[in-house]
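Archive entry. Fields below.
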Amino acid sequence: MVKLDENMIKRCLDGDRRAQMHLYSAFYKRVFNSCFRILRDKGDAEDAMQESFVKAFSRLRQFDGAVPFEAWIVRIAINTSIDRLRESRLEVVDCDETRLEGFEDSREEDDWEHTLERAAQVKAAIERLPDASRIIVTLYLLEGYDHDEIAQILNITGGTARIQYMRAKQKLIQLLK
Amino acid sequence: MNDWRNYIKENPGVLDDREPNEGHFKRFEERLNRLNKRELRVRSPMTYSFVLSIAASIAVLVLAGVRFFTPSVEADNQLVEKRMADEFLTTDHFYRGQMDRQIADIQCKLDNTDSPARAQLERDLQSLLDENTRFVEKIQTGENEELELFYLVKHYKTNLRALQFINEKLGKYVEC
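PREDICTED_STRUCTURE:
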């Protein structure tokens, strides 16, 4: 992870263009890829990425260093991307949490040990998932959020996040067979 | 699953293999330039006619909500045992979240202005929220859940389109 020069934050806050472009240069790829995984379109992802940087610059006063800057701006980017996707088509609706029953995870560890060796295939399979499933899997597996954080991002309950993830993972495993 | 997540955590670059289209640095710099120009306009107060048009948009929304669905007198007078269907609740929660985000954005823009009409606009936004709450409460008669859900979604989508319009209009004058 790229470390942030503390002085750079102050310079960005002062509107120092060079400092802002330096930050952009340091983190654009990470942010862009997070946006692309959600939006699946280079133009939209670039737009969301740049909008996220602008938001980050305007909120720099709120950045207290509790999390790394990269994690902070990626979170902004993910929220921006999901909002954008929601405007067009994404619907992640809460569902009955009792539907957790019947989902078996007993063979999950065997599946995932093989998966480690097939990073490229997994990534390709994730890209083939429908939007809602892809978002959930991306947020959990690729971006590293836990179910409660995902619930917050998607404005659903924690139980629904778990159910949606399990369903999405099953679809993913089917695609990988 | 945890092994996979840890693998990604320890090898973040393995997934970040895409690049934006060529020229993105220049486009970002141009975006910052446009942003700086807009910031210069923030200090000029909103014109009275602009404020009137925003207030009118909010008023239309409030009226539309009232006229859009008026339950029957019988429904009003019935002793209603309101069974809150899960789907209705979660749909309401979902769209309410979107409305809250739009309103928070609008509020942020209003916070960055010193227009004397700001207080009126904030009161109007509160009226909108109150009307929304009343509408959601009134619509839950339990008589026809499918129809209630249909009207709920329609109501929220109308509100969201209008709030987005207000947000974009304010965005021409104020950045947040």
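CURATOR_NOTE: The interface with chain A takes residues 1-5, 7-9, 12, 14-21, 24-25, 27-29, 31-32, 35-36, 86-87, 90-91, 93-94, 97-98, 101, 175-176 of chain B (CB under 8 Å).
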